[in-house]
Structures are given as structure tokens and as C-alpha cells.
């Protein structure tokens, strides 16, 4: 039984009915911002597996979005063999030094296995709002990527985005709403 794989210009979607996670989205895209948008589009939780510099960038961007209140998506880091221990320690230090407003455990949860991470995400679905809608500045919404490729909007599906080496957030989303809210105070 091979998994069904659909290819398009933007992503590959793999479905394996024998697994609890029904969709694995491998995002492509013409530029990094488009790829990041595809990774979180319609997600209701985010899982980070061990990865390299791209994963670190995406993970930090999402941690920033959560800390600034720009995202409420539950986020869990699979900390196999303490791979992400330095990241956890940096968040703890930033909290101790009053450099972040959220407690580290409210920014990202650390799990010791992929199974534990999936269980945590499933539990988070009961704790969090049923679906968190992404808000973007009007000027961030566009029909083409920076390099001119068309951006295809799709109806968000409830899913846990399990992306082997990728997770992130569109860096510009929500910034204007937050600025307006802070000015109103």
C-alpha cells in the first residue's frame, strides 16, 4: 500500500490512511514567504521536527508570532535526544531576563517523541478555539509572489501540519492589527 502523492507547482500532498496524521504537506513555492504561508495555511497546530537552518528560521519566526500575540496556533517541538534543548534554554533565559512576554511553555511545548507531540496537539485542539483564523494586513494579501508566480488561495482544512523540516509563519501577517491595538491603548 503506497501512499497517494499529488504533485502541483506549489506543493506535494501525501495521504497515508494507515497513519493518524492524514496529510503531509511538503511546501514548495517560488520564494520563502510563499513557502512559509503554505506551511501554516489552514493548520490548527504546528509540529517541528529536528532540522537545519531553514527549520530554525521558521521555528523562531513562529515563536516570535506567538510571543507577540500574532498567532494562537499550538506549537510543539519534537526534542529527540535533546536536539532542541539549546532553543528551550534560550527561551527560558529570555523569560528570566524579561525579554519575552509569554512564558516559554506558552510559546512552544517540547515533546520527547513524535507520538507525544501528536497527542499534545490533539489535546490542544480541545483546549484552544476550534479554528484560529489567520489575519493579515491588507497590503500583505496579494495574488502573486514576490517573483511573480500566482498564489493560489485554497479553503483552509483543519489539519495538523507535520512537516519534516519546515514550519513557519508569514512574517508580515498581523503586524498592522497589533500596531493599531497598541496605539489605541
SSE map:
Elements: E1 4-7, E2 11-15, E3 24-27, H1 32-40, E4 43-48, H2 53-67, E5 75-78, H3 85-96, H4 104-107, E6 109-111, H5 114-127, E7 159-163, H6 175-184
Parallel strand pairs: 4-5, 4-7, 5-6
Antiparallel strand pairs: 1-2, 2-3
Your description of this structure?
This protein has helices at residues 32-40, 53-67, 85-96, 104-107, 114-127, 175-184, and strands spanning 4-7, 11-15, 24-27, 43-48, 75-78, 109-111, 159-163. With 185 residues, the protein is of the alpha/beta class. It has a four-stranded parallel beta sheet with strand order 6-5-4-7, sandwiched between helices. A three-stranded antiparallel beta sheet has the order 1-2-3. A hairpin with an 8-residue loop joins β2 and β3. It is globular. One of its GO terms (cellular component) is cytosol.
Amino acid at each position: 500500500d503506497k501512499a497517494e502523492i499529488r504533485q502541483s507547482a506549489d506543493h506535494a500532498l501525501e495521504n497515508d490512511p494507515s497513519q493518524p496524521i492524514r496529510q503531509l504537506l511538503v511546501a514548495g513555492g517560488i520564494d520563502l514567504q510563499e513557502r512559509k504561508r503554505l506551511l501554516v495555511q489552514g493548520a490548527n497546530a504546528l509540529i517541528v521536527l529536528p532540522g537545519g537552518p531553514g527549520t530554525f528560521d521558521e521555528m523562531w519566526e513562529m515563536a516570535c508570532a506567538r510571543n507577540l500575540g500574532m498567532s494562537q496556533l499550538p506549537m510543539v517541538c519534537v526534542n529527540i535526544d535533546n536536539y532542541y534543548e539549546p532553543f528551550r534554554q534560550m527561551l527560558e533565559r529570555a523569560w528570566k531576563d524579561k525579554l519575552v512576554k509569554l512564558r516559554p511553555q506558552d510559546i512552544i511545548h517540547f515533546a520527547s517523541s513524535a507520538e507525544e507531540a501528536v497527542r499534545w496537539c490533539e489535546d490542544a485542539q480541545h483546549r484552544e478555539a476550534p479554528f484560529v483564523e489567520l489575519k493579515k494586513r491588507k497590503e500583505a494579501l496579494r495574488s502573486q509572489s514576490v517573483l511573480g508566480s500566482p498564489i493560489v488561495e485554497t479553503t483552509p482544512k483543519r489539519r495538523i501540519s507535520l512537516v519534516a523540516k519546515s514550519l513557519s509563519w508569514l512574517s508580515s501577517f498581523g503586524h498592522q492589527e497589533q500596531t493599531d491595538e497598541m496605539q489605541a491603548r
